Q: What sequence folds into this?
């Protein structure tokens, strides 16, 4: 039975171009369902099984998590149906669950400056400053910034960031000031914090260890709320949304705006459009 789950996850990765975080979310949702079935085969599942699963999950999860699990189940069974593995969709008769719109958390620009000032002037602090500036100017997630390779930046003469998303190659223009900082880090400072010749620009930095340092910088800067690196992406998105929704799509490198949102109180329609794509990400 588990082979079907593995096939589906491979399908959404290879054919649909889903991100690793999205694939992991689908995997977790479907494994929760598998445990709930207690050995019952996927092809034997009926509407009542899915309804019972959703009701059970309500005891542990929020409305948004329940919504996501239902989306995962519908996608999985749609895949099985198209492959001819099941004859009907056990999710078809379920009443839609609407997600609750939450405001993505952002920082004030003055708070960002205070965080940067807390990084210090030692090599590792200068490296962290560069990570923060790249997050703030590129609109990328922390996981995407940490995947940037030196060879890719050098190939564009430090003028563009090259990255892959949804199985497509993308380029982001780099401003002159940031370009010079990256070049200086590569040629002068990187060897002070990296012990290997690995091609990753920020070799040794992980989402977890950078997130922990980012939080400490915030505490030292007197910021009371719990902060995380991708708040910088939300902050940038809010800035562009203050201009226009088209700016958000262009500057944040979004191909579509389905079901997503960005922090801003004056226009709920924009929040509903942009939430899923910008706000839901790894903290």
A:
């Amino acid at each position: 039975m588990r082979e079907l789950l593995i096939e589906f996850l491979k399908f959404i990765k290879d054919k649909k171009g889903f991100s690793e975080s999205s694939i992991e979310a689908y995997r977790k949702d479907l494994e929760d369902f598998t445990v709930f079935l207690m050995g019952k085969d996927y092809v034997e599942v009926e509407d009542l099984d899915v309804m019972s699963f959703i009701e059970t999950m309500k005891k542990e999860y929020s409305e948004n998590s329940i919504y996501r699990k239902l989306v995962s189940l519908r996608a999985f069974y749609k895949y099985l149906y198209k492959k001819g593995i099941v004859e009907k969709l056990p999710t078809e008769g379920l009443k839609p669950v609407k997600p609750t719109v939450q405001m993505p958390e952002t920082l004030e620009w003055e708070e960002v400056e205070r965080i940067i000032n807390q990084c210090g002037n030692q090599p590792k602090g200068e490296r962290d400053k560069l990570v923060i500036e790249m997050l703030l100017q590129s609109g990328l997630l922390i996981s995407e910034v940490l995947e940037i390779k030196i060879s890719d930046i050098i190939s564009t003469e430090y003028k563009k960031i090259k990255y892959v998303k949804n199985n497509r190659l993308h380029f982001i223009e780099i401003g002159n000031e940031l370009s010079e900082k990256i070049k200086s880090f590569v040629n002068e400072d990187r060897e002070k914090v990296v012990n290997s010749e690995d091609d990753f620009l920020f070799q040794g930095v992980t989402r977890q260890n950078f997130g922990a340092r980012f939080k400490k910088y915030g505490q030292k800067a007197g910021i009371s709320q719990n902060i995380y690196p991708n708040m910088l992406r939300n902050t940038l998105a809010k800035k562009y949304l203050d201009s226009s929704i088209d700016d958000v799509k262009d500057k944040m490198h979004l191909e579509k705006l389905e079901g997503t949102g960005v922090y801003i109180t004056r226009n709920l329609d924009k929040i509903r459009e942009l939430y899923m794509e910008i706000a839901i990400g790894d903290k």
In short: The mean pLDDT is 81. The domain at 109-233 is CATH 1.10.443.10 (hpI Integrase; Chain A). The CA atoms of residues 194 and 203 lie 7 Å apart.
